[in-house]
Design the sequence.
């Protein structure tokens, strides 16, 4: 991504105005996020607005982001454009720039927080590899979300059609349909699915009325619903998603609200990029054309929608 | 005497299984050691084992009711009964393995027939119906045309379901140890061997002594020698193909079996107890003259098969799909180093006990099973 050199930038004459605008934009963003949270909590069923509405909520400054804007702003603009199209016309892809990944695992944690993943369930671990022998060693970090394969081996093995590719190309799991046979976990060449065995992080932690505070609140928070696939999924009894196969879904519930996937917005190195590959002006469309782009286990013919820049 | 001992062992096994049944039915899958990486464990291995015994027993029943082999006249009903008590054992272990076993009806109402698992569920249902109908006909009209038709359908199902188990594993293209056209082709033979081993036990231990029993056991022994040799050849082809291909995951899987943590189970139980001992004993006439010993060899072959099923399942899943996956994130059930938990063993032992007791009670209490072939 081309960035304006420090020397070419205007000195501090506009700094105050720029900071003011940033603060304003930040405040607007925060207000929008709060509003979103309110709506999610108040009436989850009514959350599914039209995608055009979601796109319309993106500030005009963002939708008109130029080539030199921060890549997050550009991707937000790309997203707004994509949401105006028919779902079948979009081709969501993720690009992970391994040269920029520092292995901070922020994306992993953000994903856990966003989707309220319980112990033992992970959508986006970061694989660490040590290369070479001392003293000539280096490390490589490979974030591994679901590859959202165009030809997913996990789909045909499902005995009850609980997993399928939706019209946007994202491989979904219908939690209410899944019988928990783990055939899809076995079939996935990337180990990208995990099974929810019904744990919570708060269980087994100390609890003493009046002496230790927080256990009950933490437990209640964990059991409150997440909103994967745009539906509330509280952890009650042993109902779904407990007992189910679970996986990364490119934060569809966020996309439908005009927000980028959580791992993208959280990446401190701007190493994870997301957008519509069918839009030639999008960040991702320009990146996946590069010659130094690979996909994992391409020899299997699964055609992942996650690309790595190496 | 043998029967009393088996009754006692069966009751003890069921009692030992109570903990596992309670834990699985009322607590869930928390006490299991399989998980998101080693996705299938002891119960899936036992499902393969019991399903193989059930379909194999049916194949042996066709000697009586379909092919009219005189030597085996009168043994078919026991083989059918064995199939009827072992297939539910297979289904219990695989049902317990499901995260939502209460949703099994979805496989009937919204099946994906492109998936081997859906084909198998429907196939097992049909198979059980066929076995029950065959048992009813065996009690009433054993020589009727209807019986022949039912047994023909059942034989087709038995072969299809045996091969289907191989396909269930073989379709996973990213598992080099499984993705092998030989796998679905081998499983019908494995089933036949399991069925023959079971009938060695039934005839050797429960049928009246005499020349007829000796002849039957001799025939089964010769068949078993051939089947063990073919099985050994399959073992060689599986291992040699994996090793000579040089595909790292395939080689790693074979290494795990031969030299890994459970190498003793392969060398000691699968190879020595399950193949070499029966082969030597059945080859030497002096050793295999005793009906009890022949029955015992049947038990050894079945133990070897149970271990072999485990060695098909666990090692192939114990190889990380991507380097560094195991260390990337930690949590319960995120482990590539699998050994069955106490609860998994408990359920397995309980299911073995239940099927053993069911077989014994049936042969002792059901009127048409109590009649020996002499009265027919």
Sequence:
């Amino acid at each position: 991504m081309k960035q304006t050199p420090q020397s070419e930038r205007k000195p501090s004459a506009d700094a105050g105005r720029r900071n003011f605008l940033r603060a304003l934009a930040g405040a607007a963003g925060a207000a929008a996020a709060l509003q979103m949270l309110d709506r999610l909590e108040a009436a989850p069923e009514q959350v599914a607005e039209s995608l055009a509405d979601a796109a319309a909520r993106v500030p005009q400054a963002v939708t008109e982001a130029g080539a030199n804007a921060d890549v997050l702003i550009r991707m937000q603009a790309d997203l707004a454009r994509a949401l105006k199209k028919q779902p079948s016309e979009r081709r969501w892809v993720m690009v992970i720039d391994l040269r920029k990944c520092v292995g901070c695992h922020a994306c992993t944690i953000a994903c856990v927080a966003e989707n309220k993943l319980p112990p033992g369930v992970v959508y986006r671990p970061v694989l660490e590899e040590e290369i070479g022998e001392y003293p000539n060693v280096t490390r490589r970090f490979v974030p591994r979300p679901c590859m959202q394969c165009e030809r997913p081996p996990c789909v045909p093995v499902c005995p009850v059609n609980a997993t399928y590719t939706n019209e946007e190309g994202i491989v979904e799991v219908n939690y209410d349909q899944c019988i928990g046979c783990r055939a899809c976990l076995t079939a996935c060449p990337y180990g990208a699915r995990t099974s929810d065995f019904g744990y919570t992080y708060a269980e087994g932690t100390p609890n003493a009325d009046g002496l230790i505070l927080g256990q009950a609140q933490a437990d209640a928070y964990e059991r409150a619903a997440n909103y994967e696939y745009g539906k509330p999924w509280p952890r009650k009894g042993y109902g779904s998603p407990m007992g189910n196969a679970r996986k990364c879904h490119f934060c569809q519930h966020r996309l439908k609200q005009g927000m980028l996937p959580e791992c993208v917005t959280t990446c401190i190195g701007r190493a994870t990029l997301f957008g519509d590959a069918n839009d030639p002006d999008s960040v991702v469309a320009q990146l996946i054309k590069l010659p130094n782009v690979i996909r994992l286990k391409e020899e299997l013919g699964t055609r992942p929608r996650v690309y790595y820049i190496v | 005497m043998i029967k009393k001992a088996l009754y006692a062992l069966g009751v003890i096994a069921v009692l030992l299984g109570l903990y596992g049944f309670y834990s699985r039915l009322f607590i869930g899958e928390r006490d299991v050691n399989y998980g998101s990486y080693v996705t299938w464990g002891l119960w899936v291995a036992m499902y393969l084992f019991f399903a193989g015994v059930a379909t194999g027993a049916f194949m042996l029943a066709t000697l009586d009711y379909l092919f009219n082999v005189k030597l085996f006249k009168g043994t078919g009903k026991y083989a059918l009964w064995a199939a009827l008590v072992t297939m539910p054992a297979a289904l219990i272990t695989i049902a317990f393995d499901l995260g939502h076993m209460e949703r099994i009806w979805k496989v009937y109402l919204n099946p994906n027939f492109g998936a081997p698992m859906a084909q198998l569920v429907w196939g097992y249902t049909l198979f059980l119906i066929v076995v029950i109908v065959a048992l009813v006909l065996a009690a009433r009209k054993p020589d009727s045309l209807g019986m022949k038709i039912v047994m023909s359908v059942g034989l087709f199902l038995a072969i299809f379901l045996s091969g289907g188990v191989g396909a269930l594993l073989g379709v996973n293209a990213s598992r080099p140890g499984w993705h092998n056209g030989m796998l679905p082709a081998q499983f019908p033979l494995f089933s036949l061997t399991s069925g023959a081993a079971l009938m060695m036990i039934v005839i050797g231990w429960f049928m009246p002594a005499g020349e007829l029993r000796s002849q039957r056991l001799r025939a089964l022994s010769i068949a078993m020698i051939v089947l063990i040799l073919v099985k050994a050849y399959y073992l060689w082809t599986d291992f040699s193909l994996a090793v000579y291909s040089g595909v790292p995951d395939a080689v790693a899987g074979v290494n795990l079996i031969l030299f890994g943590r459970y190498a003793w189970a392969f060398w000691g139980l699968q190879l020595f107890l399950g193949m070499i001992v029966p082969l030597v004993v059945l080859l030497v006439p002096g050793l295999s003259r005793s009906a009890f010993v022949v029955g015992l060899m049947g038990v050894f072959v079945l133990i070897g098969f149970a271990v072999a099923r485990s060695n098909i399942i666990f090692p192939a899943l114990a190889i990380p799909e991507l380097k560094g996956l195991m260390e990337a994130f930690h949590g319960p059930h995120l482990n590539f180093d699998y050994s069955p938990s106490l609860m998994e063993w408990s359920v397995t032992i309980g299911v073995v006990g239940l099927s053993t007791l069911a077989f014994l009670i049936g042969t002792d209490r059901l009127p048409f099973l109590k009649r020996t072939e002499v009265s027919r």
